[in-house]
Amino acid sequence: MDSASVRKIIHVDMDAFYASVEQRDNPDLRGRPLAVGGSAARGVVAAASYEARTFGVHSAMPSVTARRKCPDLIFVPPRFDVYRQVSQQIREIFAEYTPLIEPLSLDEAYLDVTENLKGMEIATEIALKIRAKIKDVTGLNASAGISYNKFLAKMASDLNKPNGQAVITPKNGPGFVEALPIKKFHGVGPATAERMKRHGIETGLDLKSKSLAFLQQHFGKSGPYFYGIARGIDERQVRPDRIRKSVGAEDTFVEDIGDLDSAKAELRPLAEKIWRYCEAHNITGKTVTVKIKYSDFSQATRSRTVSGSVTDIDMILETAETLLASVIPFKRPVRLLGITLSSLNTEESGPEPQLTLEL
Description:
5-stranded mixed β-sheet
């Protein structure tokens, strides 16, 4: 690879962002197991402190499960207005170094620093300075991954968490991917990892051994992406100018679902995840779409546009349940369900990319 053509990508990821903000603002919470979210029977954990994570508590976990794993867990309601303010402070720090910023959420973003505003040549030094400035301005810790593409920068940011950084060079990239377990690949959820395992794919090296035709046959439009990243190749650009068109969440099930009640139960965590994101970003929408993918990979979608705007999670969930019921009886067992909220009205500052959240 020509060194002159190598991109310098940084993935910055705040450490336990919501929980860390709460511990920063309330000294009594420091060093204690903390969950941001609702403690009610149908609540869900939006974020967990590192003290809580040692008990196995993590985001998207039902609150009752989290409480069972950690009886001393402290629940704190989210303060999205504060998280947005801190996120904007962090965004302003990024902008001191590059205009090429692609936010993924309030607490993480890709930065292309190949050509940067400081004229610095070494991306690892830029990452160190950004993390130090974030700590100085916000009092919070950030981790970072540095590499020559987005996939590897994302993987690198997890290597030395919390409050650390790692670099994956062009020389080391392919070997790093070959040794990586498939279940740790960013973008490969549990159900996809299980399907890959059935085809003998458990590591990056196993994935690399499969032809492009094989991956397209078994994994559809994701096939070319998997083929590339197995070789340490990811040509996706850092895109600061993409306008969000929708917010969606979907889940592929390890075992197919055949009845309406079971399918309805799977809609709530999807709606919870979408609405948490909407609350965090001051987003509302008008159109709810449900996607149903069957065991033979055929799929159906149903949409409904509400008058006014979707203003709470119950509206998303009730609309999604009605749409799902409209395809009963299922023509085949269901392997995937998804919900998307579109026709968005956002009060955020600046454009962000379309988002699909996998469970």
